[in-house]
Write a structure and sequence with these properties.
The chain is α/β, with parallel strands linked by helices and 368 residues long. It has 7 helices and 17 strands. Strands 12-15-14-13-16-17 form a 6-stranded antiparallel β-barrel. Helix 1 runs parallel beside helix 2.
């Protein structure tokens, strides 16, 4: 087949391309230029640009070099404007609204897959391939494409792909879905790719140091929008008593323990963020536990929008173990999720994904 391959310049996408080439497919490689490191936003305290993934010129160069080594055409797509509009700006707004967003989901489905899918069709490519650790299969009984966990539970990335539509899944290929990370790296070594020993990043690509609040401060300063920053406010107990002051709600997230700045005989955790009153709510560990939450923007993969409650195992963040719950539709693309047992630190802004074993049933965005 003729396959469009998304290439980040890292080991995984390079190994995926090598495996497809080995299988005899005709490849066209694409790298997406997403973030301009020269804007002086993703920098350290000395003003030096921080190393990045998916964004830097070095990564574009590495992707091009792999395409040359494997012998297929390669193109760079400049999606900086779309990335800022669809990923970065919502990320900033979400933090300022007291949420803790996960931009990788929107980036994958609304930007990367959508852009590459359109290009693939225009170039006559039958499939779009990425280096994600996930699987896609067609279920003859239901007539639908299934999104499945990657075989390597430690690297499974199905959590980030729940927004994919049936149309997108029908053209998706995940060559690493059956593999482990060591096996993927070995595939890169076997093909003598220059990136075979390249390290991987665990952070959001445009915030490589993990300092989200610092990024937001610098971004709004660069945009001349520092007036949007919430500023100092109250830290209150769950009973409403003021016990301290914070420096901006975007410095905090649900479940946070360190950096609150309040002395206490017992550990205190952030249990709530009240953006309307610019308050941080803190309490004990037990007060982090919740049984229910609401999710919006729900996308069902395993079936069309249900009208009756659905039983599934539900994750509320990437490293959360999926737990049994009942998912009840309450309106169009909105559901109420109730766990069998209370879960810790359910956080607005995060993605929630519904599983039945290895299959992704659907997912949504936690709103409250």
């Amino acid at each position: 087949m003729k396959v469009a391959v998304a290439m980040s310049g890292g080991v995984d996408s390079s190994a995926a391309a090598a495996i497809l080439k080995e299988q005899g497919h005709e490849l066209v490689g694409f790298t997406m230029q997403l973030w301009n490191q020269n804007r002086g936003i993703s920098v350290d305290e000395n003003g030096e640009s921080l190393p990045s993934r998916c964004c830097s010129l070095d990564d574009v160069y590495d992707a091009r070099r792999v395409a040359e080594e494997l012998g297929f055409p390669f193109y760079v797509l400049n999606l900086e404007r779309e990335f800022e509009r669809d990923v970065v700006q919502p990320f900033v707004a979400s933090y300022l609204n007291g949420e803790t967003p996960i931009p990788c989901v929107a980036c994958n489905s609304r930007l990367k897959f959508a852009s590459l899918d359109r290009l693939a069709v225009s170039l006559g490519c039958e499939k779009v391939a990425t280096g994600h650790y996930a699987r896609v299969e067609f279920d003859c009984e239901t007539g639908r494409y299934q999104l499945l966990r990657g075989r390597d539970s430690q690297k499974d990335q199905s959590y980030f792909l729940w927004e994919l539509t049936q149309d997108q899944l029908s053209r998706s290929m995940f060559p690493l879905g059956e593999m482990s990370k060591p096996a993927a790296r070995e595939a890169a070594r076997r093909h003598e790719l220059a990136v075979a020993e390249k390290s991987e990043s665990q952070e959001i690509c445009f915030v490589p140091d993990g300092d989200y609040a610092g990024f937001i401060d610098r971004y709004l300063a660069a945009e001349g929008q520092t007036g949007r920053l919430p500023g100092a406010g109250e830290i209150v107990s769950t009973g409403g008593k003021m016990i301290g002051e914070h420096t901006g709600i975007h410095h905090y997230t649900i479940g946070q323990r360190r950096g609150i700045g309040i002395s206490s005989a017992l550990p205190l955790y952030v249990t709530g963020i009240d953006s309307a009153h610019n308050r941080i709510v803190v309490g004990n560990q037990e007060e982090l536990l919740r049984e229910e939450f609401t999710a919006a923007g729900v996308n069902w993969i395993a079936f069309d929008n249900p009208t009756a409650p659905v039983r599934a195992e539900v994750r509320v963040r990437y490293r959360h173990t999926a737990e049994p719950a009942t998912i009840t539709p309450v309106s169009d693309h909105r559901v109420q999720v109730k766990f069998d047992e209370p879960q810790r630190a359910i956080t607005p802004g995060q993605a929630t994904v519904f599983y039945r074993g290895d299959e992704v049933v659907g997912g949504g965005w936690i709103v409250k």
